[in-house]
Amino acid sequence: MCARCLEAPAPFVPEHFCVRCRTAFLSEDPLDVDGCCGLCRAGETEFHAAYSFGHYENELRRLIQLMKYDGVRTLAPRLGRWLAEALPRSERFDAIVPVPLHWLRYLRRGFNQSVLLGRELSRRTGIPLRTGVLRRVKATPKQTLLDDKGRRMNVRRAFRAVNPAAVRDRRILLLDDVLTTGATLNACARVLKEAGAAHVSTLTLARVDRRPLARHDSAAAAPKGIPHAGATA
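^ that's the sequence the OP posted. Answer follows.
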């Protein structure tokens, strides 16, 4: 692996984004005067804030996949350092809770990448890592095979709190490697809040930039002969 691939990628800093879930948008139109998107205004977002280091693309995507699917666990210290850089210094948390794997997937992979990242993040920040808080009780198909609605249905009732005392009245940092639609993190945050957590924020190494999809949908929906929003003459 060359030194260039291990350089820190550009941080995730979109021009227009929801102040709560940090979802990026093509313009400020979907945001209200407080900077919240429609889903957060409607109470559909279970976590209080979402932080990510970078876009899930190029070198960062390859490094995450090398650790996750090829078992290159030695990447965890470097990726953990980037996670620590993405965490706002003004925020305080009582515990880091990694998103759990179902035991069958853990058996096949041999490790949980979120736990590896959590150990590094805990070492750098001093926030305790709590691995026995959540359990994945349902073996679900991979989220990458599903659309947005399918992802939400796929993880419904897939998690259970097995140690509520560890999160009751505490500020929890929920940790995963990638945020795509937020369905998995939303499901975990809901369970943690039901178990008594006072606050749940999420932290991921990367999040999928869905703005290109929105741009494509906008172009496809525009009537022929009429440029879609953002098009130039």
